[in-house]
Amino acid sequence: MSDFVPLRYGILGAANIARQFTRGMAGSAFGTVVAVASRGAEKAAAFAKELGIPRSLASYEALLADPEVEAIYIPLPNDMHAEWAIKAMAAGKHVLCEKPLCLTGAEARAIYDAGRKYGVRMCEAYPYMSQPQTLRLRELLADGTLGRVQLINSSFGFSIATPDGVPTGDPKNIRLDPARGGGALLDAGTYAMSFARIAAGERPTRAFAAQRTTTTGVDQTIAATLEFPSGAVAQINCSLSISGVREAMVVGEKAVVQTSYSNHAPAGFLPLRVKRGIPGNIPFDMEHLPGGDGFRAEGESFARLVRTGAGWNGCSEAESVDTVLALEAIAKSAKSGGWVEIDRG
Predict the structure, then answer these.
(1) Reduced to 3 states, what is the DSSP secondary structure of residue 152?
(2) Packed helices 41-51 and 16-25: angle between N→C axes, nearest 10 degrees
(3) Are residues 154 and 213 in the same domain?
């Protein structure tokens, strides 16, 4: 698409994930990062110099007022997503917001309502959803290969705390700060829950969860069970204190799919394992799908949506809202020790 005009992104904050997004978009014919803002001029300038961003701004407000910026990428701490997504849209900017979209279902609905009110595009960023691996899974779900989905299991975790909940690195890491929306659920668990929502194709009805907490007071490990209207049952697992894992399985009445639902392609390809048929002794077929940088894939997909009104292959509004509602219910269940019904409104 030689006549495609690249979407001009501004980065709201100088977090490490913003660094990854900027590097992912470098050289893209569909989008380019033209400015970055931080709450400190020196930090913004250093970030811009490191990554070759043309302009740095000393406040978030200045970025939203910049006429050269068309779209805002939000990598801020979780508790700031809703506020700044709505402010950016009120300023006439399209918004690509890092997961989790926000902390509550009410905030999620307000965010998407703001997009409609101000006539701009609003999407939640999950790099794995724009990868061929996930797009192929969606095809298999849609074409009936699996039949009715019965079981879903998705796990994601890594290690920034010991099994006893003691931080292994910087104790001020925002993922360990309960006041900033930290914890395993709103970090790794967003991926696991969003995957379950894709596989089920609908909002769950209720959730039950158990958790352990870190010494800083955030959820360290959570295992949750979710029931769906169709009869499907999902198990999602997330942790801040385990050997790195990112695996998922969808089991239907006619087939099974296993995937790493990766953000980025390991060794240049993304494998998808598919067992077609009911007997347990049928071997899995391995599908090797091309992949690349997930930040680039989602950034380019969002640019196509803004420019053409089509082409977005990431998280839908319904998937975003349903995932936030489910995460909210899981957190409540983990604290109460009982089943929590999920808002059907």
Answers:
(1) strand
(2) 30
(3) yes
As a whole number of Å, the CA-based R_g of the chain is 20
The count of other CB atoms within 10 Å of the CB of residue 302 is 27
Domain membership of residue 219 (yes or no) is yes
| Alpha carbons 162 and 139: distance in angstroms, whole number | 39
| Structural domains of the chain, count | 2
Helix (H) or strand (E) holding 113: helix 105-118
Domain termination residue (choose one: 78, 98, 125): 125
Active-site pick, 49, 87, 93, 99? 99
- Could you tell me if 235 and 209 are in contact, meaning their C-beta atoms sit under 8 angstroms apart? no
Per-residue tokens: 6: 């690249």
What are 82-130's pLDDT values in tens digits?
999 999 999 999 999 999 999 999 999 999 999 999 999 999 999 999 9
pTM, entire model: 0.96
Distance of CA 332 to the CA centre of its chain: 21
Determine if residue 267 is left, alpha or beta; phi over 0 gives left, psi from -120 to 50 gives alpha, anything else beta. left
Parent domain of 51: 7-125
DSSP H helical ranges for 120-214: 132-142, 184-200
Asked if residue 100 has a cis previous peptide bond (ω within 30° of 0), the answer is: yes
Q: Identify the CATH number of the domain in which residue 118 sits.
A: 3.40.50.720
Residue 252 has a CB neighbour count (10 Å cut-off) of 21
We report the CATH number of the domain holding residue 240 as: 3.30.360.10
C-alpha distances (whole Å) from 311 to each of 8, 21, 129, 297 are 17, 19, 13, 11
Q: For 142-148, which contacts have Cβ atoms below 8 Å and span 24 or more sequence positions?
A: 144/254, 145/252, 145/254, 145/255, 145/274, 145/276, 146/250, 146/251, 146/252, 146/253, 146/254, 146/255, 146/256, 146/257, 147/252, 147/253, 147/254, 147/255, 148/230, 148/231, 148/232, 148/252, 148/253
**pLDDT attached to residue 1:** 52
Same domain, yes or no, for 309 and 169?
Answer: yes
Can you read off the two tokens belonging to residue 281? 């002794």
Last residue of a domain, one of 125, 159, 179: 125
Q: Do 198 and 166 sit in the same domain of this protein?
A: yes
Contact 228, 241 (CB under 8 A): no
Active site residue 99: yes
